[in-house]
Amino acid sequence: MENTLTPTVAAPVARPNRFVALLLADRHSVPLSVALHLVPGALIVAAYAFIAAPLVRAMAYPIFLAWAFALVIVLVPILFGLLWLGRYRNGRLSLRGVLHYLDRPIPRGKVIAMMAGLLVWMTVVSVALVPLDNVVYKTFFTWVPFEGAGGSATTYLDGYPHSVLLVTMLVSLPLTGFGLPLIEEFYFRGFLLPRIAHLRWGAPVLNTVLFSVYHFWAPWTVVSKLVFLFPGIWLVWRKHDIRLSIGMHPGSTLLMATVGTVAVALGLL
Predict the structure, then answer these.
(1) Across the strands, what pairs with 99?
(2) What's the pTM value of the predicted model, to 2 decimals?
């Protein structure tokens, strides 16, 4: 009887996804980083123009709410995209290995003090620079077609009944007040900033500039953002601790959104 051997067929080896590998690489090229910083801002403007603004106008609510919805439409999928990258790397939904600067190298007491200082810095300086935003808007950006555009922080809310304003602020509080800025910190400081760290001091400079420009819906605030954002971003890069910018950015927006909501509730706005 003749013995026959069945040839062993090797199992196909999954080819690595080149784009995913490019995203998860330790270094991003400058052109790739510029695109990854700015494309979300362009998508937010598109989401506002084609989805959020028509919806909010039909509801007869302040256009401020449309920007909150547009940010949700873009930033929430970005968060899930980061988690998906974590699944690709770790076999489960996770931000480990995707985000950096998560190891908490600064002692708890020191990081709390630094976060508090950065929160005060961003809150005070951003409010103090509102007149600069007004000047830049009136000088260069009066042509911007967005409804409610302007340097004033309350322009988007003007002319609506008190009850409508209160609902708008309460809906926006957990979104623009904390959740969406937190996603921005994960993406811009935890994902993008470490991957241009090879630029050395140029990394926090580039990250600050591109994050400021990413706000295409308010280009008149770019200069003031450069001023009040840079210290926190520089410290995150220097200390490798994302908690610093989380305390500064979402912390400040939550504080100001809470104050604004209370002011509306009390009829002060």
Answers:
(1) 96
(2) 0.91
